[in-house]
Specification:
Strand order of the largest sheet: 2-4-5-7-6
Largest sheet: 5 strands, mixed
Number of helices: 11
Order of helices and strands: HHHHHHHEHEEHEEHHEE
Distance between the termini: 39 Å
Amino acid sequence: MNNNSRQSRIPTFWSQLPIPYFYMILLGFGLGLLLGVRFYFTFWMSGEINNWTFENYFIPPFTNQTLWGFIAPLVYWALQRFPVGRGTSTSRWVQAIGFSMLIAMFHEIMSYVVWWVPYHLTGYEKITWEMIRNTLVRIPAGFIGQWVEYWVLYLVFAGINYSRKYKQKELELIRLEAQRNQSQLNALRLQLQPHFLFNTLNTISSLVDIEPKDAQTMIRKLGDLLRGLLATHENHLIPFEKEMEFVRNYLDIEQVRFNDRLKIDYEIDQGTNRVLVPAFILQPLMENALKHGFSGKLESCTIRVSARWCEEDMLCLKVEDDGHGTNAEPGELLQKGIGLRNVKERLELIYQDQASLRVSNPEQPGFMVTIVLPKKMA
């Protein structure tokens, strides 16, 4: 990287101005023109119009405000160099006030210079010692006015600066919050994967001797499933069709484990395939359904997986089984179970309060978990 490219990235004083310098000049010119016309027309309406009126009621406010537009960057520099506020030291106050008085005096003197010099050079009115003496008498009163205007401009810049810093701080907090959420989501996904792999490998090991073909089938299915995990390991939201591929691979593995005792029903509405859902959000619900479905039952279990449009722009995902259900309260289940708690935390991190997770026991035997998600298309 050469020196020119490095220097181009260093913010200059002019680039840090709250308002571009050109616009400061335009604002000063516009405000001066507005005030000058206002004062001038006050006398024009009363019929007291003459050269003296123009020179004393249009020229002064016009040159005063226009000049502030030109020297406003000095006020902003003072704000950066001598910031004052609560807790400011006495020496800093002395520096700030001293500089403000210097700028106010400079402004007052320059107001006469930019007025008189063109008059003198064009021969309209020559500068005389009498004019200078009269001006020196008026300068103290004008200085006070310029000093007050200096601090008004100082406060305006301070307000703009505060607003900019507040917005930057907000953006930084949002960025840090996003990083924190990303880390939590990664941790939650890593929490699920070893848990699932442990159960699957345990099942494979139990089948190697008694059902080697089934064990081979499970290993192949597990390979497909792991490839899906690796393909989406950086994506927290994936199309629902990808989620269903994972679900089918997972349940195929479980069907090898339970043989004909496990039945799967799918009810998927059209148009849901491209909806973005949290990656692997249904896996812990599958595991939960198998747990409740076979609890206390030796014969069979049916798991129903459905995806329907339940409300306008909302996707409703349901996983239910026909087991004996549970007598535990929903709140207790969401706190006690690792899988359900994991799903709940991921939904809160990704959607805040736009998504919901509900657990319930239908009237007939069984257990049902419902996830409601906002419609976000891939």
